[in-house]
Amino acid sequence: MILVAESGSTKCDWILLDHKGQEVNRWKTMGFNPYFHDEKLVEQVLKKTIGLKDFAGDVEQTWFYGAGCSTDALRSIIVTGLNNVFTKAKNHVGHDLEAAAFALYSGEPLIACILGTGSNSCYFNGETIFEEVPSLAYILGDEGSAGFIGKRILADYLYKKLPTDLHHAFKAEFNLSKDEIINTVYNKPNANVYLASFGPFAGKHNKHPYVKNIMQDAFKKFLDIHVACFKEAKNVPISFVGSVAKNNEDILTQCLNDFGFKKGKVLAKPVDALVQYHLKKLNIKESL
């Protein structure tokens, strides 16, 4: 059996396939990012995931793609966790940028972008992935992401800069004090996921002029830093994976038009397209 997984910092999607490429089952777990999570947590979560653990001995290959899996040292953290669960499998770990590129590829070169909890981009010509500028994660970067937008909304709430109607809506939904927010951001783990948890609030209110302006600024900053840096930017489609891109596609489309970029695919989740990519790569009959 083959197990394909695509993980952001918040959530991970798992799909199990049999030898004919038919889907056996799928699961969701928390996301695993080796910047914040160790191999013990990966092992513990997977062994507690009902159903998934029952197939552990039957899995022959895993193809895991995750946020933060950008170096051999970071990938080894996830590999060790997988090895401790899928003991008979050959466990492959790649970067989430690879997952985005493979899922979005349609036979022509493209710039593949991630706009989810975090953000990133690469150029993919069908064979090789090229990165032009680094992703600086949630403190220094992640432009256009849920974390970036959520941080802005949260700060404006505390600074009392949100319009009155948004301020009341935010307070009614979250009812957070400044001390709670500061303590969670600065003293608790996974601050990136916490900040990103306020992104959906912005998405829910994305027709509001104030929020729309925040999103336009965030997306334009992403395009300026992470897309315009590629010399091919005006000649290939700019495609996206991630809930932020999909849920705010109309605003993103306008920003792309403002830059003169060609819009490509926009997928909320890449995992199903990633499965199809691997079925072709492994020369397994597509039957999903």
What this model shows, in words?
- With 288 residues, this protein is an alpha/beta fold.
- It has a domain at 2-100 and 271-281: Nucleotidyltransferase, domain 5.
- The protein has 13 helices and ten strands.
- The protein has helices at residues 39-48, 72-83, 96-104, 137-140, 146-158, 164-174, 178-187, 191-196, 199-204, 209-227, 243-247, 249-259, 271-281, and strands at 2-7, 11-17, 23-30, 61-66, 90-95, 110-115, 119-124, 129-130, 237-241, 262-267.
- The strands form two sheets. Strands 3-2-1-4-5 form a five-stranded mixed sheet, sandwiched between helices.
- Helix 10 crosses helix 12 (249-259).
- The radius of gyration is 19 Å and the shape is globular.
- The mean pLDDT is 90.
Order of helices and strands: EEEHEHEHEEEHHHHHHHEHHEH
Helical fraction: 40-55%
- Beta percentage is 15-25%
Please report the total strand number as a whole number: 10
* CATH fold annotation of the domain at 2-100 and 271-281: Nucleotidyltransferase, domain 5
**Unreliable sequence segments:** none
What summary fits the major beta sheet? 5 strands, mixed
Q: Architecture of the domain at 2-100 and 271-281, CATH level 2?
A: 2-Layer Sandwich
Q: Which structural category fits the helices and strands?
A: alpha/beta
Which assembly state applies to the chains in this document?
single chain
Lateral arrangement of strands in the main beta sheet: 3-2-1-4-5
CA-based gyration radius: 19 Å
Could you report the average pLDDT, rounded to the nearest whole number?
90
Overall morphology: globular
Helix count equals 13
CATH class of the domain at 2-100 and 271-281: Alpha Beta
- CATH superfamily caption of the domain at 2-100 and 271-281: ATPase, nucleotide binding domain
For the terminal residues, how far apart are their CA atoms? 14 Å
